[in-house]
Amino acid sequence: MANADLDKQPDSVSSVLKVFGILQALGEEREIVITDLSQRFMMSKSTFYLFLQSMK
C-alpha cells in the first residue's frame, strides 16, 4: 500500500490501515527487524516502535 494513499484517508483510517499492513508484514516474515519494517512503511524507527507498542 502506497504511503500517498494513506495520506488521503482520515487519520483513524490511515492508522488502522498501517496496523493491518504491519501485521501482514510480520505474518509473512517472522525474522524481520524494526529497521526494515520502518523503512518499508516509510516511518521513523521511533514512530514504528510506538505503533508496535500500541498494538500490544
UniProtKB/TrEMBL annotation:
Record flagged with keyword DNA-binding: yes
Organism encoding this protein: Salmonella enterica subsp. enterica serovar Poona
GO BP term, example: regulation of DNA-templated transcription
InterPro entries associated with the record: WH-like_DNA-bd_sf
Keyword DNA-binding: yes
Protein name: DNA-binding transcriptional regulator KdgR
Sorted UniProt keywords: DNA-binding
GO MF annotation: an example: DNA binding
